[in-house]
From TrEMBL:
Protein species of origin: Herrania umbratica
Transmembrane segments: 961-985
Assigned keywords, A-Z: Cell membrane, Glycoprotein, Leucine-rich repeat, Membrane, Phosphoprotein, Receptor, Repeat, Signal, Transmembrane, Transmembrane helix
Gene Ontology CC annotations of this record: plasma membrane
UniProt-listed SMART domains: LRR_SD22, LRR_TYP
Gene Ontology process terms (BP): signal transduction
Pfam families the UniProt entry points to: LRR_1, LRR_14, LRR_8, LRRNT_2
Compartment list: Cell membrane
Name of the protein described by the UniProt record: LRR receptor-like serine/threonine-protein kinase FLS2
Similarity field: Belongs to the RLP family.
Signal peptide range in chain numbering: 1-21
Domain Leucine-rich repeat-containing N-terminal plant-type: 35-73
Length: 1012
């Protein structure tokens, strides 16, 4: 055979082999699938629960090399790779997409048939859900494995030591991120010693608190390049050994409890390229030994307690590409040496206490792609920041986060120079002026958050050019004007729109179809009306909707109630929406406050946690809502029904509603007694104010040991004030029994309520003396704390309670400032005796009202020590003697009423006491300003006159009753002058008309009595 023939045969053979190889690679030949391996895979599938049919291609007959997740060797046909990891999911995935992802997770158990895959070298079952199943021990017999990834797949129990038999293994990831299942743990790691080829090891989330050998064992792995031990419950150094990680380049010890300093052995790792020590308990200064680690490109020291200033030497690590010092206690200015980080790509100094301005040396950071300086105290003009950054990286900067600083000035046109910017976060600053039109030039922009600033003007139409935009947050600014459809016409990728608390008006035609599918739309305080916005019906992925205070005055269309089935949160409050609601299929929070909804309370889903139905016209009994509920066990936590037209008795069917902790049914027409089953729920807040409830308070209420507020005022309750209120409700901060028919003495047990800030027992039939032990009400003895968790109670960002209080001679509503209020009101009862001097020790009281009782004796001398008093009313008692000189110390006093007692002598001189008009002192024998100019003339005792019927009448009856009118008129005229900055929400209209009506009734009675 000549040479040419040999070459020809060789070429033909080569081409044949190549063709065969191509066929094998394509996996189209039925001969490629090894029958025994195909059967092994089918057996594996039988034990897998595949809810999304991901493995539908795994069928018999079939070529296993064509199956999803299966890869075969091009020449031999043996299965060498099995990758069953689910597809990834977007950060802004809709509920539907999340549901699809959740169903795509494989479940079930791992069949030992995998042992028949003798040539399997790559096995990836990560991101599935095996429900706490222990990692199978037989995996340790699959000796061909070089790659094993079981991370985040829901495995539990102890790690099998049999995995140590996998001597060829190069990649091992057993990381855990969720503790939904039983704890994954390892008591020792000696089994790792057999993995001599291991290059990558990730045990993140595995409990290694008892594996004290982790450092010794991993140190002996000769090929180890990456070691990830995040969140492994590691504490201090296990032992002072000398380490010799010859090839280690990546070390992750984040989210552990290592303290108080960085272990010294880490600084001997001269070849280390990536080091993550975030979220430990390191303190004091950043060790200067880091400057010897010249190979470092990635350094994360975030979420520790490093303090002092940022050391300048840290920026000598010129190879650093990623540096994070986020969430420490670093202070002072950013050093100018920061400009030495010539290789830096990502720099995160957020969450510290850095102040001042950015040094000009940032202009040297030519490779910078991500800069995060959020949550600091940087005080600089926004335009100056943008100018500095534009000189170094205007073409390449992708993420800029300076949220929650002290930036001022305008968001200037320079922002349009950052052509590659995808994330811009400048929220919670003091940036003013308009949004620049140049923002529309940033074609790569995906995420914008400029909320909580002072931006004004209109929304520029150029925002409509941001075709890549997914997240837009412009909420809590001063934007105004009309927004045309064109602003949204090209935002096809928009997933989150947060724009509440502006004064914008959206002008959309009735047939407008949005180009986007949003997950969140928050447009509260926009003007979207007067018709209900029909374009919402095209939002198929919506889970959060807020169109509150949007000027909508319309009947809610029927399609909307069907549309809500995917909603997690719905807020359509403070509009003028009408109609009856057949049902609500929202899943978590519903806010319908302040509308005109009628009919019975609508049915809700059992997983709803928060319901605001207040200030509507819902009517009928409560039985339909509570007793006829058949959709499952409700998870309702908060229910507000106040100010509706609900009537009838409170039903006795609360057993299935045991999750309710906050209940407000005030201002309705409820009658009858409080049923025992209601009292046994375990409330934190209970408000039944202003109904027609009667009887005594049920004994079951004493089981509500977490109760912070109890308001049953303005009802028809009777009996004595229960002693168990003081004995069994230790956390009570607000107690209002006002305007009922409670009788008997004030129980001494109330003195045990050390957290009590508001006590209102006014307008009852209580007799006896004030207990001297009231001095033990310690929350009234100290200055109010606005961080008090008892009253500052929020659900989903909503303050869940308010309270009507009689202060300064009027009725006001307090909500967000309630934690700053301390008041005691015992007025209009039958209390006798002297005012206890012990009350003067309640130095934190802001309002004290003892009017309309039968107190005798003198005003306690030390009342003037109650320096926080803003309102004091001792009127209509039988007090005598002089006004204590200590009253001159009451510098915050803005309401004083001492009228109609038997007080004598000079009114003490002070700025406050002389600022009140004479009606604060009428009906006494006082002298001096403002009653008289001086005390030289004798003050005559008011005489009684006899009317035609022979009854005695005060000469000054007009003065006596004119005080009521003066309070009401003074409230209207002097509202803004007298109200302290503390009080922002005022229900003064109701109080005013009620007071005028009360005056009218009193005057009418008097006219009848006198015959005039």
């Amino acid at each position: 055979m000549n040479a040419n023939m040999r070459v020809t045969i060789f070429i033909i053979g080569f081409l044949t082999l190549a063709a065969t190889g191509i066929t094998l690679c394509d996996g189209k030949s039925s001969a490629l699938c090894i029958e025994s391996e195909r059967q092994a895979l089918l057996q594996f599938k039988q034990d897998i629960i595949d809810r999304s049919n991901r493995l539908s291609s795994w069928a018999d007959p079939g070529d296993c090399c064509n199956w999803v997740g299966v890869s075969c060797d091009n020449l031999t046909g043996h299965v060498y790779k099995l990758d069953l990891r689910p597809s990834s999911i977007s950060d802004y995935a809709s509920d539907a997409e999340i549901g699809v992802y959740w169903r795509s997770m494989l479940r079930g158990r791992i069949n030992p048939s995998l042992l028949l895959l003798k040539h399997l070298s790559h096995l990836d079952l990560s991101l599935n859900n095996f429900g706490g199943l222990q990692i199978p021990q037989f995996l340790g017999s699959m000796e061909s494995l070089t790659y094993l990834d079981l991370s985040k797949a829901g495995f539990g129990g102890a790690l099998p030591h049999q995995l140590g038999n996998l001597s060829k293994l190069q990649y091992l990831n057993l990381g855990v991120t969720s503790f939904r299942y039983q704890l994954v743990e390892a008591r020792n790691l000696q089994w790792l010693s057999g993995l001599s080829s291991l290059q990558y090891l990730d045990l993140s989330g595995v409990d290694l608190s008892k594996a004290t050998d982790w450092l010794q064992v991993t140190n002996k792995l000769p090929s180890l390049v990456e070691l990830h031990l995040s969140a492994c419950l590691l504490y201090d150094d296990p032992s002072p050994i000398t380490v010799n990680y010859t090839s280690l380049s990546t070390l992750d010890l984040s989210n552990n409890y290592i303290s108080p300093s960085v272990p010294m052995w880490i600084f001997s790792l001269g070849s280390l390229v990536s080091l993550d020590l975030s979220t430990n308990s390191f303190e004091s200064l950043i060790p200067n030994s880091f400057q010897n680690m010249s190979s470092l490109k990635f350094l994360d020291l975030s979420i520790n307690s490093f303090n002092s200033s940022i050391p300048g030497w840290l920026f000598s690590l010129k190879h650093l590409e990623f540096l994070s010092l986020r969430g420490n206690l670093l202070q002072g200015k950013i050093p100018s040496a920061i400009g030495n980080l010539s290789s830096i790509i990502s720099l995160d100094l957020s969450g510290n206490q850095l102040e001042g301005i950015l040094p000009t040396s940032v202009e040297n950071l030519f490779n910078l792609r991500q800069l995060d300086l959020s949550d600091n105290k940087i005080d600089q003009e926004t335009s100056e920041v943008l100018q500095s950054l534009s000189r170094c990286c205007s073409d390449d900067l992708r993420s800029l986060n300076m949220a929650n600083n002290n930036l001022t000035g305008h968001l200037s046109d320079e922002v349009g120079q950052f052509k590659s910017l995808s994330n811009l976060l400048l929220s919670q600053n003091s940036i003013s002026g308009p949004i620049p039109a140049s923002l529309g030039n940033l074609s790569s922009l995906k995420y914008i958050d400029i909320s909580d600033n002072q931006l004004d003007g209109s929304l520029p139409q150029s925002l409509g050019q941001l075709k890549s935009l997914e997240y837009l947050n412009i909420a809590y600014n001063l934007l105004e004007g009309a927004v045309p459809e064109v602003v949204f016409s090209h935002l096809t990728r928009l997933r989150v729109l947060k724009a509440t608390q502006n004064k914008l008006k959206f002008e959309a035609k009735s047939n407008w179809v949005p180009p986007f599918q949003c997950q969140t739309i928050e447009m509260g305080y926009w003007f979207l009306g007067p018709k209900f916005p029909t374009w919402l019906q095209f939002q198929k992925d919506l889970s959060t909707l807020d169109i509150s205070s949007a000027g909508i005055s319309d009947v809610v269309p029927s399609w909307f109630w069907n549309f809500t089935s995917k909603l997690v949160s719905l807020n359509i409050s403070h509009n003028q929406l009408e109609g009856e609601i057949p049902y609500l299929s929202v899943h978590k929070l519903v806010d319908l406050r302040s509308n005109r909804f009628t009919g019975p309370l609508p049915r809700v889903l059992p997983d709803v946690a928060t319901l605001f139905f207040s200030n509507n016209s819902f009517s009928g009994s409560l039985s339909h809502f509570f007793c006829d509920y058949e959709l499952g066990e409700p998870k309702l936590f908060l229910l507000q029904l106040e100010t509706n037209l609900l009537s009838g008795d409170i039903p006795d069917c609360w057993v299935k509603w045991r999750g309710i902790r906050v209940l407000n049914m005030g201002n309705n027409n409820l009658t009858g007694k409080i049923p025992d089953s209601l009292g046994s729920l375990g409330f934190m807040f209970l408000n039944l104010r202003n109904n027609k409830l009667s009887g005594e308070l049920p004994l079951t209420l004493q089981n509500n040991t977490d109760l912070f507020m109890l308001d049953v005022g303005e009802n028809q309750f009777s009996g004595n004030i229960p002693k168990w209120i003081g004995e069994s409700l230790p956390n009570l901060a607000i107690l209002s029994l006002r305007s009922n028919s409670f009788a008997g003495h004030i129980p001494q047990e109330l003195c045990q309520l050390s957290s009590l800030q508001i006590l209102d027992l006014g307008d009852n039939k209580i007799s006896g003396a004030i207990p001297k032990c009231f001095k033990d009400l310690s929350a009234m003895a100290t200055k109010p704390n606005n961080t008090d968790a008892v009253i500052d109670f929020f659900v989903d960002g909503e303050f869940i309670r308010s309270e009507l209080l009689v202060m300064k001679g009027r009725v006001d509503e307090y909500s967000t400032t309630l934690s700053l209020v301390t008041t005691m009101d015992l007025s209009n009862n039958n209390l006798i005796g002297e005012i206890p001097k012990e009350l003067a020790s309640l130095a934190g009281l802001q309002s004290l009202n003892l009017s309309g009782n039968s107190f005798i004796g003198r005003i306690p001398d030390h009342v003037g020590n109650m320096r926080l008093l803003e309102s004091l009313d001792f009127s209509r008692n039988h007090l005598h003697g002089s006004i204590p000189v200590s009253f001159s110390n009451l510098n915050f006093l803005s309401h004083l009423n001492l009228s109609y007692n038997n007080l004598t002598g000079r009114i003490p001189t002070s700025t406050q006491l002389q600022s009140f008009d004479k009606f604060s002192y009428v009906g006494n024998q006082l002298c001096g300003p403002p009653v008289t100019e001086n005390c030289s003339r004798k003050i005559e005792t008011p005489k009684n006159v006899t009317n035609e019927d022979g009854h005695e009448e005060d000469e000054g009856w007009f003065e006596k009753y004119w005080i009521y009118a003066s309070v009401a008129i003074g409230y209207v005229v002097g509202f803004w002058g007298v109200v302290a900055p503390l009080y922002f929400i005022k229900s003064w209209g109701l109080a005013y008309y009620e007071k005028v009506d009360s005056i009218g009734r009193k005057l009418s009675k008097l006219w009848v009595k006198t015959g005039t």
